[in-house]
Amino acid sequence: MESKTLYGPPMRTINEQAEFSELNLAAYVTGGCMVDMQVMRNGTKVVRSFKPDFVLIRQHAYSMALGEDFRSLIIGLQYGGIHAVNSLYSIYNFCSKPWVFSQLIKIFNSLGPEKFPLVEQTFFPSHKQMISMTIRNSRVAL
């Protein structure tokens, strides 16, 4: 904890750092949210509750690994109107690789393959469509 002068009288600023897995939150219609943080620091469990003014997110909010879906925390921060250094909208959008790739396709179509080369991919809504399209488009010689 340290005090800094930020365009006016000195203010006490507190910086907290934690992984998504160490956080829980409740967001309110009236604005803001309360965050509960439970972390291990030097072998000691530290539990804190605080109301953030803004956040900087440096972790992916979604992974296909078991227990690695933290999109609800991003939604909670957005719901609570918490400001972020990096946009919560962009962090949420980056949770879906096909969504991100579709944005790259827009750039590809606007600039062309010479200025913005893109690896060709095919999107299927689920594995079932992928299998049926593969069978339909393949020819088997007997």
UniProtKB/TrEMBL annotation:
It is found in: Synapse. The keyword NADP does not apply. It comes from Pavo cristatus (Indian peafowl). The keyword Ribonucleoprotein does not apply. It comes from the Eukaryota. Keywords: Phosphoprotein, Synapse. Residues 16-82 form the Synapsin pre-ATP-grasp domain. Its main location: other. This is Synapsin-3. Belongs to the synapsin family.
